[in-house]
Specification:
This protein is an alpha+beta fold. 15% of the residues lie in helices and 27% in strands. Strands 1, 2, 5, 6, 7, 8, 9, 10, 11, 12, 13 and 14 form a 12-stranded antiparallel beta sheet that branches. A two-stranded antiparallel ribbon has the order 3-4.
Amino acid sequence: MTYQRMYQPKVKTGNWFEDLVLKEETIKEFLDKRSRGELLSQKVDFLKQNILEHVNLSATFDGQLRFGDVVMLVNVGGQDREHSVLSINANVDNVTKTPLPSIKMPCGVSGGKGIQSCVRTAFIITSVDGSPEGSTLHFDQSFALKTTSGFAKGLYLTSDKPRFQKCAKKSGLQDVYLDDTLSVLSWWKISHFDPQERFESEGLPVPANEKVLVIHCMTNQGLAVLGEKLLWTAYGGEYEVVAHTFLDTHRAEQDVNFWILGTSDPAGDGLLFLRHLHVQQPT
């Protein structure tokens, strides 16, 4: 038989004293959690305050990418999906406040729909072959993509061959995630998006703000966004990001593999790559 409360706490009949004590304890627990910043709403606010903090992207004056540049990786979008940005997919369980506020491992990535240069979307082009900072990045040259220091903790974009219990959550394809160790699993290279131009472009400087392929060196799989695989994150519905090359009937890569390594406008007029996407800049 289902128990039904017959009396309210305000009356002096029945179990009113126990109800008052329980209510007081609930209020006290709530106030204690709030004072320690442990309420879920406080945790979400803390996460977003830190991970959405603005980051200045690098500006290129000659249209070329260089080691040390801070960029956003923007997928060009397609018929079944919007433009999206490679983003840190951290939730409240990925955050630690001691000794300093930062992201803790493991942490994944996703294709965020908000075009915003911030801690969550900024990556640093990092040398893995001894190339000095400021030198030009070339097609087919290995490099790493590292998050900014501080809250994002300088983590490396990493991928590995799919294995049982180690694959992308929705699709089961090769997972892409962030790791604090730089290894061959964190090496990437840039290829021309047009197969007919690929051989001629080898060794040439990589242009900023233009469509390219981002290839995982060890597995030779292209970074991709899956429009049909939605992840529900602390930032809303976002796309799953994997390392997998999708080819059309002509053996050419599909637009899920097309990325722009975006920089800011050297003239100070916002984000330069937005002109190529035909989207409105955030105010």
